[in-house]
Specification:
Length: 202
Protein backbone atom coordinates (compact mmCIF):
# COMPACT_ATOMS: atom_id res chain seq x y z
CA UNK A 1 0.00 0.00 0.00
CA UNK A 2 3.00 2.33 0.37
CA UNK A 3 3.24 3.16 -3.39
CA UNK A 4 -0.45 4.13 -3.47
CA UNK A 5 0.05 6.40 -0.47
CA UNK A 6 3.06 8.09 -2.10
CA UNK A 7 1.13 8.62 -5.33
CA UNK A 8 -1.91 9.97 -3.50
CA UNK A 9 0.12 12.35 -1.33
CA UNK A 10 2.03 13.63 -4.38
CA UNK A 11 -1.16 14.28 -6.33
CA UNK A 12 -2.71 16.06 -3.34
CA UNK A 13 0.41 18.22 -2.97
CA UNK A 14 0.29 19.13 -6.68
CA UNK A 15 -3.40 19.99 -6.53
CA UNK A 16 -2.91 22.14 -3.43
CA UNK A 17 -0.11 24.23 -4.96
CA UNK A 18 -1.74 25.70 -8.03
CA UNK A 19 -0.31 28.81 -9.66
CA UNK A 20 0.21 30.29 -13.12
CA UNK A 21 1.56 27.66 -15.50
CA UNK A 22 5.13 28.14 -16.64
CA UNK A 23 6.49 25.37 -18.83
CA UNK A 24 9.99 25.05 -17.30
CA UNK A 25 9.06 24.45 -13.64
CA UNK A 26 6.07 22.29 -14.60
CA UNK A 27 8.18 20.03 -16.82
CA UNK A 28 10.87 19.75 -14.10
CA UNK A 29 8.27 19.01 -11.42
CA UNK A 30 6.57 16.37 -13.55
CA UNK A 31 9.92 14.77 -14.32
CA UNK A 32 10.83 14.67 -10.63
CA UNK A 33 7.39 13.29 -9.80
CA UNK A 34 7.77 10.51 -12.37
CA UNK A 35 11.24 9.63 -11.03
CA UNK A 36 10.12 9.53 -7.40
CA UNK A 37 7.02 7.47 -8.20
CA UNK A 38 9.11 5.11 -10.32
CA UNK A 39 11.64 4.65 -7.49
CA UNK A 40 8.88 4.06 -4.95
CA UNK A 41 7.19 1.48 -7.15
CA UNK A 42 10.28 -0.64 -7.87
CA UNK A 43 9.62 -2.76 -4.78
CA UNK A 44 6.63 -4.55 -6.32
CA UNK A 45 7.24 -5.80 -9.86
CA UNK A 46 3.75 -6.38 -11.42
CA UNK A 47 1.97 -3.73 -9.40
CA UNK A 48 4.87 -1.37 -9.97
CA UNK A 49 4.86 -2.00 -13.70
CA UNK A 50 1.11 -1.36 -13.99
CA UNK A 51 1.28 1.79 -11.88
CA UNK A 52 4.32 3.09 -13.78
CA UNK A 53 2.48 2.53 -17.07
CA UNK A 54 -0.62 4.33 -15.76
CA UNK A 55 1.37 7.24 -14.34
CA UNK A 56 3.45 7.56 -17.50
CA UNK A 57 0.29 7.65 -19.62
CA UNK A 58 -1.33 10.23 -17.34
CA UNK A 59 1.79 12.39 -17.38
CA UNK A 60 2.01 12.27 -21.18
CA UNK A 61 -1.66 13.20 -21.54
CA UNK A 62 -1.21 15.98 -18.99
CA UNK A 63 1.87 17.36 -20.75
CA UNK A 64 0.06 17.26 -24.10
CA UNK A 65 -2.91 19.16 -22.66
CA UNK A 66 -0.57 21.67 -20.98
CA UNK A 67 1.33 22.30 -24.21
CA UNK A 68 -1.91 22.73 -26.14
CA UNK A 69 -3.22 25.21 -23.55
CA UNK A 70 -0.02 27.25 -23.70
CA UNK A 71 0.11 27.48 -27.50
CA UNK A 72 -1.18 30.54 -29.30
CA UNK A 73 -4.67 30.09 -30.64
CA UNK A 74 -4.57 28.77 -34.20
CA UNK A 75 -6.96 30.01 -36.86
CA UNK A 76 -9.34 27.22 -37.75
CA UNK A 77 -9.50 26.49 -41.48
CA UNK A 78 -12.89 26.54 -43.12
CA UNK A 79 -15.58 28.86 -44.34
CA UNK A 80 -15.42 32.51 -43.39
CA UNK A 81 -18.85 33.50 -42.13
CA UNK A 82 -18.64 37.30 -42.25
CA UNK A 83 -18.72 39.51 -45.30
CA UNK A 84 -15.36 41.19 -45.98
CA UNK A 85 -15.49 44.99 -46.13
CA UNK A 86 -13.06 47.31 -47.88
CA UNK A 87 -11.46 47.64 -51.28
CA UNK A 88 -8.05 46.17 -50.43
CA UNK A 89 -9.15 42.55 -50.00
CA UNK A 90 -7.20 39.91 -51.95
CA UNK A 91 -8.73 38.38 -55.07
CA UNK A 92 -10.81 35.31 -54.33
CA UNK A 93 -12.68 32.77 -56.42
CA UNK A 94 -14.62 29.56 -55.93
CA UNK A 95 -13.68 26.18 -57.35
CA UNK A 96 -16.60 23.73 -57.23
CA UNK A 97 -19.55 24.18 -54.86
CA UNK A 98 -18.48 26.14 -51.81
CA UNK A 99 -20.00 28.47 -49.23
CA UNK A 100 -18.58 31.97 -48.98
CA UNK A 101 -19.53 35.18 -47.21
CA UNK A 102 -18.14 37.23 -50.09
CA UNK A 103 -17.00 40.84 -50.13
CA UNK A 104 -19.23 43.89 -49.76
CA UNK A 105 -18.81 45.95 -52.94
CA UNK A 106 -21.60 48.54 -52.64
CA UNK A 107 -24.39 49.71 -50.32
CA UNK A 108 -27.26 52.01 -51.21
CA UNK A 109 -30.83 52.81 -50.20
CA UNK A 110 -33.71 53.79 -52.47
CA UNK A 111 -37.48 53.84 -52.95
CA UNK A 112 -40.42 54.51 -50.70
CA UNK A 113 -42.80 52.21 -48.84
CA UNK A 114 -45.85 54.12 -47.68
CA UNK A 115 -44.51 57.19 -45.88
CA UNK A 116 -41.03 55.70 -45.36
CA UNK A 117 -38.38 57.23 -47.65
CA UNK A 118 -35.33 55.15 -48.63
CA UNK A 119 -37.24 52.08 -47.49
CA UNK A 120 -35.11 49.58 -49.39
CA UNK A 121 -31.47 48.76 -48.70
CA UNK A 122 -29.40 47.14 -51.44
CA UNK A 123 -26.13 45.32 -50.70
CA UNK A 124 -23.92 44.26 -53.60
CA UNK A 125 -21.83 41.31 -52.44
CA UNK A 126 -19.11 39.85 -54.66
CA UNK A 127 -18.97 36.08 -54.24
CA UNK A 128 -16.07 35.52 -56.62
CA UNK A 129 -13.61 37.52 -58.71
CA UNK A 130 -14.07 35.02 -61.55
CA UNK A 131 -17.35 33.95 -63.22
CA UNK A 132 -19.24 31.18 -61.41
CA UNK A 133 -21.61 28.52 -62.71
CA UNK A 134 -24.56 29.26 -60.47
CA UNK A 135 -25.99 29.90 -57.04
CA UNK A 136 -27.74 27.33 -54.88
CA UNK A 137 -31.02 28.21 -53.24
CA UNK A 138 -29.65 27.92 -49.68
CA UNK A 139 -28.18 31.12 -48.16
CA UNK A 140 -27.46 32.35 -44.65
CA UNK A 141 -28.84 35.71 -43.57
CA UNK A 142 -27.78 36.97 -40.13
CA UNK A 143 -26.75 33.42 -39.23
CA UNK A 144 -30.13 31.94 -40.23
CA UNK A 145 -30.40 29.35 -43.00
CA UNK A 146 -32.78 30.68 -45.67
CA UNK A 147 -34.13 29.53 -49.04
CA UNK A 148 -34.26 31.60 -52.23
CA UNK A 149 -37.55 30.97 -54.04
CA UNK A 150 -36.19 30.46 -57.57
CA UNK A 151 -39.63 29.10 -58.54
CA UNK A 152 -41.28 32.49 -58.03
CA UNK A 153 -41.51 35.13 -60.74
CA UNK A 154 -38.61 37.52 -60.07
CA UNK A 155 -39.24 41.21 -59.48
CA UNK A 156 -36.74 43.96 -60.25
CA UNK A 157 -34.96 43.29 -56.93
CA UNK A 158 -34.59 39.58 -57.73
CA UNK A 159 -36.02 36.37 -56.26
CA UNK A 160 -37.74 36.45 -52.85
CA UNK A 161 -36.32 34.71 -49.77
CA UNK A 162 -39.00 32.53 -48.19
CA UNK A 163 -38.06 33.15 -44.56
CA UNK A 164 -38.53 36.90 -45.07
CA UNK A 165 -42.06 36.64 -46.42
CA UNK A 166 -44.45 38.00 -43.78
CA UNK A 167 -48.22 38.01 -44.28
CA UNK A 168 -47.76 37.40 -48.01
CA UNK A 169 -45.38 40.36 -48.44
CA UNK A 170 -41.70 39.84 -49.32
CA UNK A 171 -39.03 41.77 -47.45
CA UNK A 172 -35.80 40.27 -48.85
CA UNK A 173 -34.73 39.41 -52.38
CA UNK A 174 -31.60 37.94 -53.95
CA UNK A 175 -30.48 39.09 -57.38
CA UNK A 176 -27.67 37.01 -58.89
CA UNK A 177 -25.20 37.77 -61.69
CA UNK A 178 -22.79 34.99 -62.63
CA UNK A 179 -19.96 37.27 -63.80
CA UNK A 180 -20.35 36.72 -67.55
CA UNK A 181 -22.34 39.94 -68.06
CA UNK A 182 -20.81 42.49 -70.43
CA UNK A 183 -22.88 45.49 -69.27
CA UNK A 184 -23.63 47.01 -65.88
CA UNK A 185 -26.60 45.66 -63.96
CA UNK A 186 -29.71 47.60 -65.13
CA UNK A 187 -31.33 47.53 -61.68
CA UNK A 188 -28.27 49.08 -60.03
CA UNK A 189 -27.94 51.65 -62.81
CA UNK A 190 -31.60 52.62 -62.45
CA UNK A 191 -31.48 52.97 -58.65
CA UNK A 192 -27.98 54.38 -58.12
CA UNK A 193 -26.68 55.61 -61.50
CA UNK A 194 -27.72 59.24 -60.96
CA UNK A 195 -26.34 59.65 -57.44
CA UNK A 196 -23.88 62.49 -56.91
CA UNK A 197 -22.05 60.61 -54.16
CA UNK A 198 -20.83 57.12 -55.15
CA UNK A 199 -22.98 56.43 -58.24
CA UNK A 200 -23.16 52.96 -59.78
CA UNK A 201 -21.55 53.56 -63.14
CA UNK A 202 -21.76 51.75 -66.46
Amino acid sequence: MKPFRVLLLTLVALAATTAHAHAGPVVAALGALASSIGAALQASSLLGFLLRAAVTTLLRVGMSLLQRAMQKKQVEPGIKGQVAIGGDNPLAFIAGWYATAGELAYVGSWGQDGSTPNAYLTLVIELSDLPVAGLRSRVFVNGEACTIDFGAAPVEQGYPVLEYRKDGKDHLWIRFNDGTQTTADPFLLAKFGNLVDRPWEA
